[in-house]
Amino acid sequence: MDILFRRSGFMACKPRHSFGPMVHDCFLFHIILSGSGVFEQEGKKYTLHTGQGFLIWPGKMAYYEADAHDPWKYAWLGFRGADALRLVGAMGLNESQPVWELNSDEQLQRSYQRILRDIPKCTDLASGRLIIAGDMLNFLSWAGEASARTSTVSMQYCDQAIAYIRSHLTDKVTVEQLAAFVGLSRSQLFRAFKEVYGKSPREMLTIVRTEQAQYMLLNTSLPLEQVALSCGYANESHFCVSFKRESGLLPMEFRKSRSDILWDE
User: Fold this and answer.
1) For the chain, first and last CA: distance in Å?
2) Which of 2, 64, 62, 5 is CA-nearest to residue 32?
3) What pLDDT, in 10s, does the model give residues 29-79?
4) Of 113, 117, 144, 119, whose CA–CA distance to 132 is shortest?
5) In the 8-state DSSP scheme, what is residue 119?
6) Residue 35: left if φ>0, alpha if ψ -120 to 50, beta else—which one?
7) Is the pLDDT confidence value at 252 over 80?
8) Closest alpha carbon to 10 in 144, 137, 123, 139
9) For the chain, what is the radius of gyration of the CA atoms?
10) Measured torsion, CA atoms of residues 218, 96, 161, 149, in degrees rounded to the nearest 10
11) Is 167 exposed, middle or buried (0-12, 13-18, 19+ CB in 10 A)?
């Protein structure tokens, strides 16, 4: 599985302790170990408790706050990579459904208990985060298998389509080209993407381009015009409009905001 671990940790919040509103450059999954709190993303508010999790989507404005009387404790994991969307989709999560709930699957319950067991041992910051990262990746993998919300066939078609998009980012990829490449009709491809990602192929094209642009903005000093062309946008103006619509910030605002953030979720 092509998953790039970015950061991880554990937080025992004080009453009303909050983060945000802020934008992240990767998927950031939190699993609530005890207590409760509120999570807000894209104008939607969720009141959450022990045994639930929430996913902060890259490029989306998010805010979360511990309850005043029963503040939450949570473990968190930041990740990205070619298979990140697949992992998220397998859990039944998407931008409009970012909340997940622990089910009764035996292996998943054991994975959850392993996180609870290991967190008190993580006294050293560096090694502790690696331990939590391993536990969380194991948990997310089992959660994806236990969810069973996507079919293997649809996932295979979507994997092929996403791989094609990533290898042709500088081209003007169309939905018709994607459908022809994987051997489906346009309507069949649409249904497969909706089943796996909760998004249309056109929406996923935009998401992949935006994620690549975010990566280039944060990891290179290339001017906006070169970033735009490298990610398949017609010009810098089109890039700025599309990027702000997806991320809530203009490209240079995103680049500057991310350089000032300390990673202590």
Assistant:
1) 25
2) 64
3) 898 988 999 999 878 889 999 888 899 988 788 899 999 999 999 888 888
4) 119
5) G
6) left
7) yes
8) 123
9) 19
10) 130
11) exposed
Written as six digits, the tokens of 42 are 């894209």
- For residues 139 and 144, what is the distance between their CA atoms, to the nearest angstrom? 9
Q: β-strands 36-41, 44-49: how paired?
A: antiparallel
- CA distances 254 to 14, 63, 218, 249, Å, are 29, 17, 8, 6
Residue-wise pLDDT tens digits, 225-236:
999 998 889 899
Which of 198-203's residues contact partners 24+ apart within 8 Å by CB, and which partners? 198/89, 198/94, 198/95, 198/96, 198/97, 199/94, 199/95, 201/161, 201/175, 202/175
Name the nearest CA neighbour of 168 among 180, 155, 176, 177.
177
Tracing tokens 């290898």 back to the chain, one arrives at 167
Q: Quote the pLDDT of residue 91.
A: 74
149 CB neighbour count, 10 Å cutoff: 14
CA distance 220 to 255: 10
